[in-house]
Write a structure and sequence with these properties.
- The complex is a heterodimer of chains A (291) and B (265).
- Chain A contains 13 helices and no strands.
- Chain A has 291 residues and is mainly alpha-helical.
- In chain A, α1 packs across α13 and α7 packs antiparallel against α10.
- The chains are: A mainly alpha (291), B mainly alpha (265).
- Chains A and B meet through α1, α3, α4, α5 and α7 of A and α1, α3, α4, α5 and α6 of B.
Amino acid sequence: MHKFRPHIEGWLLLLPAAVLLGTFTHFPAIRSFINSLYTTPRRNRPAKFIGWENYQILLEDDIFLQSLWNNILFALWTIPLSIILALLMALAVNSNLRGRGLLRLIFFSPTILPMIAVANIWLFFYTPGYGLLDQIRSLFGGSAFNWLGSKETVLECLMVVTIWKEAGFFMIFYLAALQQMPEDLREAALIEGANRWQIFWKIMFPLLMPTTLFVLINAIINAFRMVDHVVVMTRGGPDNASSLLLFYIYEVAFKFWDTGYAATLTVVLLLILTVVAIGQFFFMDRKVHYQ
Amino acid sequence: MTRLEKVGSWLLGVIWVLPLAYAIWTAFHPGEYSTRFELFAPLTLENFHKAWQAAPFAQYFFNTVVLVTVILAGQLVLCTLAAYAFARKQFFGSDVLFVLVLVQLMIMPDVLIVENYQTMNFLGLVDTTGAMALPYMASAFGIFLLRQTFKTIPKDLEEAAKLEGANTLQILLYVFVPLARPIYVAYGLVSISHHWNNFLWPLIVTNSVSTRPLTVGLSVFASTDQGIDWSIITAATLMTSAPLLVAFLIFQRQFVQSFMQAGIR
């Protein structure tokens, strides 16, 4: 009995967290896959096994393909841009610039705001005619333009909102890394006659690599997880031009109540996140040390 | 820094502050000045007053405070226990279980809305604070963060407490928790600001004024027939974010440090 004590104690300590984790993360992930093989149960029709049929529907579903493509574009633009801006911000705030405290406050403040508040603020900013964007444009002779109502601009508008909100968040991780960077490395390089450009690319940038990877993973997850602004600003429109994957799942599940198909879409999203996780495992393991 | 870099930095700063500054201007001025910029336009709190009257914001505030408190309390207890098990106990399957916990860092409850809604429906919890809070309580992030911290606490302290006759829970409460205090503060701030701002899951799982948090309340308010009275909508928007913004302004250093600490581990 004595031998088992630490095992039992360990299990008991873990039990409450394990139950909740299992119920709301692992179980639903597995259930998504199982339900994706069935039709949606309706009042007088129980769920029927249909194998891969939902996945065949998926491949011919234009809205799904559009949402997936939008999401990929969204990730490809917002992630590098917010990371570059975050790095620039961190460099600015970490310098001897006067008023850098105020600047840091300005860059970081969007992070504290709820995405839904941010969405409201930008909705106003983009308002055709009298939003600030059109007002600034009118100074240069531009006319009113429906930024969120046009297929050509709506996704870009949402990207800007996301970058505005995220860059300041990523900035603090770079700031932390920059502050820990040993000053003598820089001085040694200066003595060797390196210019600032070389110092940045040859010394600072490699040292910032673990931070960049950490931020990158976070940014990828967020690109597929955050759809609050879509719900508030565009509802995926016009014509699904701003629909993202999770938003489409939300619509299919809670507007059309097609839970079988929504489960199929969820599986796709889970697959994407799993690929990111595996990528992180192979790519990051050697670079970042979680003692 | 060269002059060009200085100008560039401030230009970026000005661009960054514009949307928020515009919202603040509109919220504190009468409607007719919302898009006209005159330095001496009269200031007013009228918009805030109207917004407060137009929707049950007091109830929403209360709901959000309860929600955030419940989640944080649950997280602190569950994550502390689990983190201690992973940091100090050798038990069957601990490695596999730890990997299973880390899965949640990637696959968050945020994306499992379809199945989790069905679970809540099955449990009869739809439209309760519990439904909003439960999926987030066993936070992988919290477990991971605390485990890393607990691992750095010297074993001698634990042994000494054991000699004094303390049991596991006492050791945890009187040795580990006090020593990890800065990490708890950091985690608490991150958790509060995250869940104060959470929107999609509460939107799905609530449908009444008595449970709805601020974010959902704000979206309902902004979308239903307010016309487009932007003065009132921006006032409501700022009002709902105000507690966090004010807390941030006061505890700026602590906030930034907390986010850094929580992120780097």
